[in-house]
Structure formats: C-alpha cells, structure tokens
Amino acid sequence: MTQKQKRSTFKTVLFSLVGIAVLGTVWYLGSPLLLNRTVEEALPGSTQSEMQKTDMPKTEMSTPEKKAEAKPTTLYTGTFVDGDNFHKVKGIAKTVETDGQLFLRLEDLDSTNGPDLYLYLTKEGMKTSEGINLGALKGNKGNQNYELPKDADLDQYNQVVIYCKQFSVDFGKAALKAI
C-alpha cells in the first residue's frame, strides 16, 4: 500500500467515525422532540377492582374480609405553564395523601419531550437544580405519580418544575396552592 493510499484510507475512516458521532449526537438531541412516552398510572390509593373473582369452592373460612381503605385526599393543586416559547407544558400537578403517604400526581400531562428530564419541587425564586429532585420524568404525556419525601414542606416547596438537567432548562412549572 502506498503512502497516498494509506492517507486516503485514514481520511475515509476518520470521516466515517466523525459522521457516526455527529449522527449519534443529532439523534440523542433531536429524537426526544419526535418521540413521546405516555404513562398511565392509577391514582395512588384507588383500586382498579376490589378483587379478582375466581371459581373457588365456597367454604365458611374462605371469605375475605373487606378492609376499609382511605380515599385519596388532594391537598395542593396547580396548573402547568410553559417554561418558554419552545418548551410547552400543559396539565395539572396535585399532591395527594393516601394511607399516610404523600404523592405528587401529574394529570393530563402534555409536555414537549427532551433529553434528561427530571421533576423538581422548588421554592419561589429558587434555582431549580437546588430544589428537591423527585426523579426522572416517567413520560412526557399521561398521568403519573411520584412519592414525596416525608419532610417536604409544601408550604415552602410550592413549585413543581419539569427540568432538563443536561441543558439546565425549565420546560414548565406549576405553582401549588392549598385547597
């Protein structure tokens, strides 16, 4: 192989690797804008059906006792507003208490998708990244639940923010108000 052929082969390999890297980056950054993930979780504490009925022989001892379940109570609620002209969010954020546990529930969520989206609780005027991280956003559409820390003071931490960690951008927020 001549020096010229080696140089040509090297350039071809180098351009191919750069091209693959560029395409991968474009896909990583652009695909969330094209793809949606819908999550449909039941309201915490609600039951889909009380019990599955099966064909079992009836005996006096096989009757299950019905347990009184506490109904979910909504404590705070807020409506999402867009983070900016490009990042759009619609839906409702509410805190729900059931059986002594506190959840943040997102209902009818419809958000612009993006890479590295997380859900935060923040105080008014606080930088989002300094708030309480509730974890990765499960989906950009639908109904979903996030367990809240027991020590979360919702009178102080009254903003729910959908936040892109990678680019430090708020996609949208909802101000929680007591009911």
UniProtKB/TrEMBL annotation:
Pfam family of the protein (one): DM13
Domain DM13, residue spans: 78-177
Bilayer-spanning residue ranges: 12-30
Species this protein is from: Paenibacillus sedimenti
Basic and acidic residues biased stretches: 52-69
Lineage: Bacteria, Bacillati, Bacillota, Bacilli, Bacillales
Keyword Iron-sulfur: no
Keywords from the named record: Membrane, Transmembrane, Transmembrane helix
Region of interest: Disordered: 44-69
InterPro entries referenced in this protein's UniProt entry, alphabetically: DM13_domain (IPR019545)
Keyword Calcium set for record: no
Protein name per the record: DM13 domain-containing protein
